[in-house]
Design the sequence.
């Protein structure tokens, strides 16, 4: 229950203009769906984050830590609890979104976008992060999920990770200790909140780096339905298969539930054509899983995370 006392405590920690009641979550989710959260809190320092989480825990308030909402389907009924984010809107400063180059290392906060980090690397003449420039998420989520594209993954470039473990404080672990696997890490399996990371890259030619980023961006535009709201690849890649081909082979390209549709451009993407509800998107995802299993015997596993009331 959200009490006046809880609101007062949170606003003392994070300031009144960053603590909101009944915030519509559709504006914070790339699928463009989602009802209201009881509370929506934006924090800009590690201390604010830790104190906010302690306050919510003591109040018994369910809490979800939100990045840029690019791998998330939020229910139409919203979220009964508090959504906390480290990501700052464009033009607003936050130490949790800062990016700085030091030699061959980029230091970045968990709320920094992968695009911002890729541009900082390019400007510093550092190569190795080009693959991530088009992934529309934040560093924290990318580390937790070991995000990747075009033969690159976070595990290839992460040197160290700063992690907040509520109750025990802030710790640092090496990239090797992060336990990266396909779309997973020890932080996903065991918990812990990524505050930031060091990204180790190699010297390169700025023009060559820019050209590679542009090339990958064009490949995305050519092959992916970027003109529609989506959460990117809907399913993990099954071992020995490609999710998009399994879906296409099942005759599902263009299949729809309301305004939720299997993209005709890339069958691995479920898209919102403009008016889809979260319930329709979820129904479509589950229909795809059922039909693909009947057709091929392969059980597709979602990359997309469900949150809230559907």
Sequence:
């Amino acid at each position: 229950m959200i009490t006046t006392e809880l609101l007062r405590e949170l606003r003392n920690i994070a300031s009144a203009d960053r603590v909101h009641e009944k915030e519509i979550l559709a504006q914070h989710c790339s699928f463009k769906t989602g009802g209201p959260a009881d509370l929506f809190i934006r924090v800009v320092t590690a201390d604010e984050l830790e104190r906010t989480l302690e306050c919510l825990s003591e109040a018994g308030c369910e809490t979800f830590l939100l990045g840029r909402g690019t791998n998330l389907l939020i229910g139409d009924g919203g979220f009964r609890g508090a959504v906390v984010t480290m990501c700052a809107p464009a033009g607003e400063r936050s130490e949790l979104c800062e990016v700085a180059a030091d030699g061959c290392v980029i230091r970045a906060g968990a709320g920094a976008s992968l695009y911002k980090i890729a541009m900082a690397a390019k400007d510093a003449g550092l190569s190795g992060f080009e693959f991530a420039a088009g992934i529309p998420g934040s560093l924290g989520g990318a580390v937790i999920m070991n995000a990747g594209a075009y033969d690159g993954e976070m595990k290839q470039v992460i040197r160290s990770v700063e992690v907040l473990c509520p109750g025990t404080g802030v710790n640092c672990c090496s990239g090797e200790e992060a336990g990266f696997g396909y779309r997973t890490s020890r932080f996903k399996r065991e918990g812990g909140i990524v505050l930031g990371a060091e990204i180790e890259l190699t010297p390169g030619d700025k023009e060559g780096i820019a050209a590679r980023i542009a090339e990958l961006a064009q490949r995305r535009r050519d092959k992916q339905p970027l003109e529609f709201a989506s959460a990117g690849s809907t399913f993990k890649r099954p071992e020995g298969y490609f999710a998009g081909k399994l879906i296409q082979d099942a005759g599902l390209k263009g299949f729809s539930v309301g305004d939720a549709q299997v993209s005709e451009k890339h069958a691995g993407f479920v898209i919102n054509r403009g008016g889809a509800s979260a319930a329709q998107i979820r129904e479509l995802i589950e229909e795809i899983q059922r039909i693909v299993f009947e057709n091929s015997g392969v059980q597709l596993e979602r990359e997309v995370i469900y949150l809230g009331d559907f």
User: Anything to note?
Assistant: DSSP finds eight helices and 19 strands in the chain. Residues 98-207 form a domain with the Uridine Diphospho-n-acetylenolpyruvylglucosamine Reductase; domain 3 fold (CATH 3.30.465.10). The first strand starts at residue 19 and ends at 24. The two ends are 20 Å apart (CA to CA).
